[in-house]
Design brief:
This protein is an alpha/beta fold and 311 residues long. It has eleven helices and twelve strands. Helix content is 41%, strand content 20%. The strands form four sheets. It has a five-stranded mixed beta sheet, with helices on both faces. The longest helix has 27 residues.
């Protein structure tokens, strides 16, 4: 049977497995995400290829790689599941319910910012739609944008210093960052004094792989760097060794400042202002669930509200 002759529930399940394999980058990672054996995943992949009558991916010693047909099927499957989710939302709306699924791609470790609206917005969404299925991915900013562009995520939330065509960015909250050193660093004892200004030139700086540091943090553009991290946690690890200086969100660093393991370099002279933004695809109508979620984000990001009423 070709896919044009009928699409059964089994086919939807197989397509969902295939999408997970693609998004996880191969069978091994998909095995963890799906919580099934690799032999089961391999069998389901073969079943889907038989159903569709085409080879979807090359797999073996060289790793997992989509064929041209596989890439086309993946893109079609993303559209299919988005349409199914939209259908569920519209039916739920007709019944006066909030229903469907919401896929979020969120910057790592944002939970440390207690002023952010995400937790309250998710709680409000759950009150409005108890049956809504929420899927959250923690990703670096560039991966968040790609996930939104290719349809894996309905909404992305992060810090985006260079906006991409095809995406819409909306301000959610401020997220200032400061330059820190850890206990044991040569700068630590003098971090609050003018001496830090002369000593900073010799400091080893942790660069963030997902940012253009010269543009985002020009005050430290001339510093030597022998370390790179692609998540805030990695930056924090290296600062805490007492051998590096690096940028962290003020909210994220608060705990280590409180217990004396980090200090701001020269009383926040190097502080930079960044912003948390939501990102969605231009030209794509949001689902009912996404609409409700963003209404909650705007409510809690702007003022304190009880979140009990509908948006």
């Amino acid at each position: 049977m070709t896919p044009l002759q009928g699409l059964a529930r089994t086919d939807l399940h197989l397509l969902s497995v295939f999408m997970t394999i693609v998004e996880q980058g191969g069978f091994s990672a998909a095995q963890i995400a799906l919580n099934v054996s690799q032999s089961t995943i391999s069998r389901q992949m073969r079943d889907l290829e038989i159903r569709l009558g085409m080879r979807l991916a090359q797999r073996g010693r060289t790793g997992f790689r989509l064929t041209d047909e596989g890439r086309a099927v993946y893109e079609a499957a993303v559209k299919l599941f988005r349409a199914i989710n939209g259908f569920r939302g519209e039916v739920g709306a007709a019944k006066g319910e909030v229903s469907g699924a919401l896929s979020l791609a969120v910057i790592d470790n944002w939970i440390r910012d207690e002023t952010g609206p995400l937790i309250d917005a998710l709680a409000a969404l759950k009150r409005w739609g108890p049956a809504v299925h929420i899927n959250i991915h923690s990703l670096p900013p560039d991966e968040i944008e790609r996930a939104v562009l290719d349809g894996r995520a309905d909404i992305g939330i992060g810090v985006f210093h260079q906006h991409r065509p095809g995406l819409r960015y909306d301000l959610m909250s401020a997220d200032p960052m400061d330059l820190y050193c850890g206990s044991g660093h040569p700068l630590f004892a003098d971090a609050g004094s003018d001496a830090a200004l002369s000593q900073i030139a010799g400091a080893d700086y942790v660069r963030r792989s997902y940012l253009s540091e010269d543009r985002v943090a020009p005050l430290v553009s001339g510093l030597v760097s022998t370390a790179t991290a692609n998540q805030m946690e990695g930056v924090a690890f290296l600062i805490l060794t007492g051998r590096y200086v690096g940028y962290l969100p003020i909210s994220y660093a608060a705990g280590w400042l409180g217990n004396g393991r980090m200090r701001s370099v020269h009383n926040s002279t190097y502080q930079v202002e960044t912003h948390i933004e939501s990102v969605t695809r231009k030209g794509v109508a949001p689902s009912q669930v996404a609409d409700y979620f963003m209404a909650a984000v705007n409510r809690f990001g702007i003022s304190e509200a009880d979140g009990q009423a509908d948006p």
